[in-house]
Amino acid sequence: MRKPDGVVEIFLQPGEWYFGDRYTRIRTVLGSCVSAVFWHSGLLMGGMCHFVLPSRGRLPAAADLDGRYGDEAFRLMVRELRGSGGRPDDFQVRLFGGANMFPAIARGSRGPLVGQKNVDAARALVRDHGLKCVGAHVEGEGHRHLLFDVWSGRVTLKGAHGDTSSP
Questions:
Q1: 114: helix, coil or strand?
Q2: Burial, 162: exposed, middle or buried (Cβ in 10 Å; 0-12, 13-18, 19+)?
Q3: In which band, very low, low, confident or very high, does the pLDDT at 166 lie, cut at 50, 70 and 90?
Q4: DSSP helix/strand/coil, 115
Q5: Beta strands of the chain (E only): which ranges?
Q6: Which residues fall within 8 angstroms of residue 102, CB to CB, at 6 or more apart?
Q7: How many Å separate Cα 83 from the centre of its chain?
Q8: Domain residues of the chain, as ranges?
Q9: Are 94 and 136 in contact (CB under 8 A)?
Q10: pTM score > 0.85 for this model?
Q11: Measured between alpha carbons, how far is 57 from 39 in angstroms, rounded to an integer?
């Protein structure tokens, strides 16, 4: 599908999220962080979150939700999905990132690394929110450049793992 005129290009930093319509392209760069991409094929709406850690633990009573944490980023995104006119379970979800960025250091590690914890959290959050994950490119080593065209649902991935794209 051809890129429509008037597309807004959004670059997500760690901890940011964005939800848009068919005139939106979202990109980010991932290492051990995880991005979840949400897309509704009928509404041509979708979004992406880029979280750094699975959770901050107990949320202070007066605190706003913070996209740096997976559990809170998913709550923010689900809020947007509900406000879009579609049901959250009608959106497709794809997961990216969670890489081991320092393999030499990790060889001596005794527990799961940050990237693995983020991937595990993302998979649990998809399940806990009743969403359907239709694809993932997670774990491994090295960075990923991620590009999501909301008008088509196409995700393009470039990085240490080679270049791929999916409809």
A1: helix
A2: exposed
A3: low
A4: helix
A5: 8-12, 17-20, 24-30, 34-40, 45-51, 92-97, 132-138, 144-149, 154-159, 164-166
A6: none
A7: 19
A8: 8-166
A9: yes
A10: yes
A11: 28
- Nearest CA to 125 out of 80, 164, 69 is that of 69
pLDDT the model gives residue 109: 65
Residue 96: name the closest of 50, 151, 152, 132 by CA: 50
Instruction: Give the C-alpha distances (Å, rounded to integers) separating 77 from 27, 90, 103, 105, 158.
Output: 16, 14, 32, 34, 24
Residue with tokens 């947007």: 80
Q: What whole-number distance in Å separates Cα of residue 35 and Cα of residue 28?
A: 8
d(CA 23, CA 89): 23
Which amino acid is it at 146? L
Q: What is the pLDDT of residues 19-62, one digit of tens each?
A: 999 999 999 999 999 999 999 999 999 999 999 999 998 877 67
CATH code for the domain defined by 8-166: 3.30.1330.200
- 93 SS3 class: strand
Residue with tokens 């991935």: 157
Give the pLDDT confidence of 106-154 residue by residue, as tens digits.
566 666 789 999 999 999 999 999 999 999 999 998 899 999 999 999 9
